[in-house]
């Protein structure tokens, strides 16, 4: 079977390569000529552990190809997946669907009969039916099917998440017909995932679209709740690690997404919470919890900068701060909505000299952070002569640093660890003024 994946971005590349690994022939359509050249040259334009090797293997096996020729790819395809970006529209919380609708129009122009059109991009409820309406209007005589198949993979773990998913959500127009062409085709594509129990969950189009937003918003709320409990622990003498362990052992709560941090970021939680809140407001059923989560997360990043100022005794003019981690979390090069983009400009403005290091995000960070920041070659180079050290992401390389090694490079002894990567006692014993989130006095 052959399928077309429109979009050589994060979701398109990972899904295309993984579906190829399941045995399907996949053409990934990429319209940006520079990006297409890079993909064809085997130079994968994003960092995701294992992705370049997987793509190379699938191309070698003849199951994965890159192209800008949608018409030819569609002629041999049974299904086309739309995996284009849905960024936040400027000045509103709405998802910008212009790429999705452009893909729908392009599909309509070249679709063969009986094509299955699957939305993989994260799209607001109602978009799947809108895609169908666009195709129907352009080609009233075409027979086609539509489905929604949102993606739940995490950056940094994308391949494992795709090939060992908790569930694959599939929204269909017709949910009662167990042998509908759309359902049968998707069952075939995902067949390698099925063990004794199927991972495929079928539902209506609207439910599938809403499930994606609801899952991301719920996880964002969970992280935000843990962040608020961490603040309360600090104020009252509790230990957040004990509290979240105690909570998380209750299977109704679960242990995941309860680690406090500098605020959630990335290309998904901020955009998807905004889009969900906007859809809900438009539908006349505002999601107050989601709206409060968005506001609390924004405020958290700014408060962290204030906290650093307080730790430094009220002024950071002439204070050198080493920063480990710039991306929105570890194991990615993604700077989108990273807490560092709010926190570091505030510290810079307040007069601190910043020495920063990130294993993957520095090239992008240079374009986004203010001038005058020193980009170090290693964590220890960043720490050289620093009065204070700030940990913003949880890379294992940072966790491997010891008090002795850092003491040999830092001038001061103050640390704010926003990811609980170290044990407080180790640092306190070594004479550091060590602070981390959620540990009370
Ligand atoms: C998230 C979801 O986890 C995926 O299921 C979803 O498919 C994806 O968005 C998407 O919609 O494409 P991702 O953005 O890669 O994945 O990142 P996460 O690992 O979920 O982390 C999101 C943010 O929450 C990060 O800033 C992270 O540092 C923060 N976080 C996460 C915490 O602060 N504490 C936690 O305990 C967990």
Automatic annotation (TrEMBL):
What EC number(s) does its UniProt record assign?
A: 1.1.1.22
Q: Where is the UDP-glucose/GDP-mannose dehydrogenase C-terminal domain?
A: 322-424
Pathway(s) per entry: Nucleotide-sugar biosynthesis; UDP-alpha-D-glucuronate biosynthesis; UDP-alpha-D-glucuronate from UDP-alpha-D-glucose: step 1/1
Catalytic reaction annotation: UDP-alpha-D-glucose + 2 NAD(+) + H2O = UDP-alpha-D-glucuronate + 2 NADH + 3 H(+)
Superkingdom of origin: Bacteria
Please give the family membership noted in the entry: Belongs to the UDP-glucose/GDP-mannose dehydrogenase family.
Classification via PANTHER family: UDP-GLUCOSE 6-DEHYDROGENASE TUAD
Q: What is this protein called?
A: UDP-glucose 6-dehydrogenase
Q: Which organism is it from?
A: Bombella dulcis
Record lineage: Bacteria, Pseudomonadati, Pseudomonadota, Alphaproteobacteria, Acetobacterales
